[in-house]
Design a protein that fits this description.
By secondary structure, the protein is an all-alpha fold. It is 94% helix and 0% strand.
């Protein structure tokens, strides 16, 4: 999660918390019956819980998307790494074979000169 997204999430949670606290205090100091106030508190608590669950789902979805993106990028990098390794392995094997052929040619030439 980037710093910007982390700050946005923290800001959203602080705003939600402030709203809950403010609404709770307003209900406690409102001039109405206790029964009505308790019902409003319960209703508001359910609403706050639902919003918190929605925020948690959104955060979970965001994290899931990030993991999927990183997984795809990692797979791409591994594939590219395998391609590069294969290229250099092939190049090295060709160089070794060319070196062996050159040695064999030189050995034959020297054998012809000395023997």
């Amino acid at each position: 999660m980037t710093e910007r997204n982390r700050n946005a999430t923290i800001g959203s949670l602080m705003l939600l918390s402030g709203g809950i606290i403010g609404a709770g205090l307003a209900l406690l100091y409102a001039p109405q019956s206790g029964k009505r106030t308790r019902r409003q508190i319960v209703r508001y608590g359910r609403k706050a819980r639902n919003e918190a669950e929605e925020t948690a789902r959104d955060a979970a979805n965001y994290v899931t998307e990030m993991v999927d993106t990183l997984s795809d990028q990692t797979s791409d990098l591994v594939d590219r790494g395998n391609d590069v390794a294969s290229y250099w392995r092939k190049s090295l094997m060709e160089s070794i074979e060319n070196g062996q052929k050159a040695l064999e040619k030189q050995a034959k030439r020297l054998s012809g000169m000395w023997g």
